[in-house]
Design goal:
Layout (H helix, E strand, L loop, with lengths): L1 E3 L1 E4 L1 E3 L9 E3 H13 L3 E2 L2 H6 L10 E7 L3 H13 L4 E5 L20 H6 L5 E5 L12 H18 L3 E6 L11 H11 L4 E6 L3 E3 L7 E5 L6 H10 L6
Parallel strand pairs: 2-6, 2-12, 3-4, 5-6, 6-7, 7-8, 8-9, 9-10, 10-12
Antiparallel strand pairs: 1-11
Helix pairs in contact: 1-3
């Protein structure tokens, strides 16, 4: 079976002492991008996948690059590298905080503005959903989830944003237990969410078994280039 890695990034930084956990130094990001290009990976948007009719439509070495939370540092540091290496990526926005700060954390990091989201070339960056208020779906009622989607749609309409129908679950969390899991998935279908992204740290087999439980590889700031290569090949690493 063919495999599709989906990479997950968060903060991009310049300070070498800050490259840990969810913050990755930009020179490390560039080294990873160089590696992808050198090995012939083809980056995709989820809108590309939705146009595919068959698994044979996928390129030989497909990969999806994702960035969560639309931090301003992604616009300043990651987006220019995507342009430089002619790579596509998907950026997932918690819409309540666009133009503000990451209030679900400590509020120290700025997020892109609406104008900055619009300024990125859609051939390079595909925007997607990351909920409205960055709350974990497994702790919300069905009514709260419906309200979250409504707020997202109102924001998108108000600002005339082009948002793909893909949802990256905040914290990777979604209802796991029945019967609420089925209720949640049904609501995603009602809301026309074509794909849902968890974390999982595994490679996705093609064709997808479940469009709403796609795995992403969590790329950490402390990862060496060797560890990055191994994650691409193996997924979850228990020995590193």
């Amino acid at each position: 079976m063919s495999r599709l890695p989906i990479l997950m990034y968060h903060n991009i930084c310049k300070d070498p002492t800050s490259s840990i956990g969810l913050s990755l130094r930009c020179d490390k990001l560039e080294a990873q991008f160089k590696y992808l290009v050198s090995k012939g990976y083809t980056t995709l948007h989820f809108s590309d996948i939705q146009r595919f009719k068959h698994v044979d439509d996928f390129p030989k070495k497909p990969i999806i690059i994702t960035f969560d939370d639309v931090y301003l540092n992604q616009y300043e540091l990651a987006y220019p590298l995507l342009e430089k290496y002619n790579l596509k990526a998907c950026f997932y926005a918690p819409l309540a905080y666009v133009g503000g700060v990451d209030s679900w954390n400590d509020g120290s990091a700025s997020l892109m503005s609406v104008s900055q989201l619009k300024a990125m070339d859609p051939k390079i960056v595909e925007l997607g959903l990351h909920s409205f208020e960055h709350r974990p779906y497994d702790s919300l009622s069905l009514e709260s989830i419906k309200q979250d989607f409504k707020k997202c749609k109102d924001f998108i309409s108000k600002h005339d944003l082009n948002i793909c129908n893909v949802l990256a679950y905040p914290y990777g969390k979604f209802p796991r237990n029945e019967p609420f899991k089925s209720v949640f998935i049904n609501e995603l279908l009602v809301q026309d969410v074509a794909f849902g992204l968890r974390i999982g740290n595994r490679l996705n087999l093609l064709p997808f078994k479940n469009n709403h439980e796609l795995n992403r590889l969590d790329i950490k700031g402390e990862d060496s280039l060797l560890k990055f290569k191994l994650k691409l090949k193996l997924g979850k690493l228990s020995l590193f």
